[in-house]
């Protein structure tokens, strides 16, 4: 992502950085499902906080957590569930209390035209349907299992992926017929895939918290980025990408 380089570091509600300091990055580890929304947030944030700029590491939430546990440096961690955030806290790697910044819903993803005629979760267990899912430790995979349990369906996934973007990719490539991802992922993929709505009675609400990481190299940037995501501007950008208000 292009770095935005200007002169003065303004941090809302957090004071200012010493004069003469150069532009500094704020390193954000964020769940893969946040990719498009956070890239847009990063552009807006950089234009309003001119001497810092966000850099992103997008991956499945458990992958990001493992990287942090193994010593990877980050300033902010944005998770697609509360369980991995709780683990970060229990590991002593968070600074302050996490804040919920968005919610999401699940949707079935299929190829354009829905060639297998998938109309419900029950259809995922039909003979001849190749179903794939994010792994059970990945938030999307965990949420998918909860939705399937509510619907009383137990399809056997052909593969278990490390994040929702991998599920989308396999549907796009024709390597699978259907998967369960976030509604925002279906929207982000555009015409490359098609979504099948999961009714509220079977759906699961995904909760997204974020927190400053302990030992952040840019604590000013971490605090200001978290504040921006929670601001009305940040929330409006998330809404444009299909996320529900925190």
The CATH superfamily of the largest domain is Periplasmic binding protein-like II
According to DSSP, the number of beta strands is 13
CATH architecture term of the largest domain: 3-Layer(aba) Sandwich
Distance between the termini: 27 Å
Total individual domains: 2
What strand order characterises the main sheet?
Answer: 4-3-5-12-6-13
**Low-pLDDT residue intervals, each spanning 5 or more residues:** 1-20
Estimated structural class: alpha/beta
- Major beta sheet summary: 6 strands, mixed
Supply the CATH class of the largest domain: Alpha Beta
Helix content: 25-40%
SSE pattern, N- to C-terminal: EEEHEHEHEEEHEHEHEEHHE
CA gyration radius, whole angstroms: 19 Å
Number of H/I helices: 8
Average pLDDT, all residues: 91
Would you write up a description of this structure?
This protein has 246 residues and is of the alpha/beta class. It folds into two domains: 10-103 and 208-245, Periplasmic binding protein-like II (D-Maltodextrin-Binding Protein, domain 2, 3-Layer(aba) Sandwich), CATH 3.40.190; 106-197, Periplasmic binding protein-like II (D-Maltodextrin-Binding Protein, domain 2, 3-Layer(aba) Sandwich), CATH 3.40.190.10. The protein contains eight helices and 13 strands. The chain has helices spanning 35-48, 61-69, 82-90, 139-151, 164-172, 183-189, 219-230, 232-240; strands at residues 10-11, 15-16, 24-31, 52-59, 76-78, 94-104, 106-110, 131-134, 160-161, 178-182, 194-197, 206-213, 244-245. The strands form three sheets. A six-stranded mixed beta sheet has the order 4-3-5-12-6-13. It has a five-stranded mixed beta sheet with strand order 9-8-10-7-11, sandwiched between helices. Strands 1-2 form a two-stranded antiparallel sheet. Strand 3, helix 1 and strand 4 (52-59) form a beta-alpha-beta unit. It is elongated. The two termini are 27 Å apart. The model is unreliable at 1-20 (pLDDT under 50).
